[in-house]
Amino acid sequence: MYRKLNNLAAGPTMTHTRSLPYDIDSAPARFAWAVTGSGHGLVESLEIAATLLPHVDLFLSRAAQEVLPLYQIDLAQLKQRFRVFRDNSASAVPVGMLYDETRYHTVVVAPATSNTVAKCAFGISDTLPTNMFAQAGKLGIPGIVFACDTQPVVVTKSPLDWVELRPRNIELDNVARLRQIDHCHVVCSLDELRAAIDARIADIRMPAPEAESTCTSA
Ligand SMILES: Cc1cc2nc3c(=O)[nH]c(=O)nc-3n(C[C@H](O)[C@H](O)[C@H](O)COP(=O)(O)O)c2cc1C
């Protein structure tokens, strides 16, 4: 069972000023977790992200920043536990951290709106999450995207009530297209997201294969 989101601000590290359990400059490589403006899977995705602490940092789209409080998630409280990067530059300045290979080994986009899925599928990068995804791909850093609109009927929680959505063919087609993008693993449920992250963790912990010997005895 995942930790409840309300506990994100609880625990011994909670203070009224930001106090992180690690120093970003000396911490080992970790997950870069991009959050978009999707209400669907928002709380649950952040619960999964919290299980990775302190080995995860958050990267919010502008829409994510607006949607968070609508689901009773307080940005100030998130910042007490996570290092949070907001989308407040035209060139997605935090993306530069991906060039330092010791910082991030994986980029997760969860939850991903149909807007972000479409942009990622067509190589558009004009938000912090889409820039993180695109630049990671160009660097060969694996990406995991939790696409929300993947079924003919999606039942999701709006800020007021549960609603039933019927993704159009364009949304389903974009998910299919995203699956073709290099270094990208698309997941369609929270269980698949957790499994993909566990698999990635297992991958990272795997000892590097021994270099093949090319020597022949003379
Ligand atoms: C309360 C609320 C919930 C939303 N939930 C979703 C959602 O589940 N899926 C989705 O694709 N868009 C959703 N949206 C719309 C996106 O936030 C909007 O398309 C936004 O432009 C996405 O920007 P981003 O992809 O850069 O985060 C929601 C908007 C609001 C206000």
UniProtKB/TrEMBL annotation:
Gene3D superfamilies, per this entry?
A: Flavin prenyltransferase-like
Boundaries of every Flavoprotein domain copy: 30-152
Regions crossing the membrane: none
Quote the protein name from its UniProt record: Dihydromethanopterin reductase
This entry's Gene Ontology molecular function terms read: catalytic activity
Matching entries from SUPFAM superfamilies are given as: Homo-oligomeric flavin-containing Cys decarboxylases, HFCD (SSF52507)
Instruction: Specify the taxonomic lineage.
Output: Bacteria, Pseudomonadati, Pseudomonadota, Betaproteobacteria, Burkholderiales
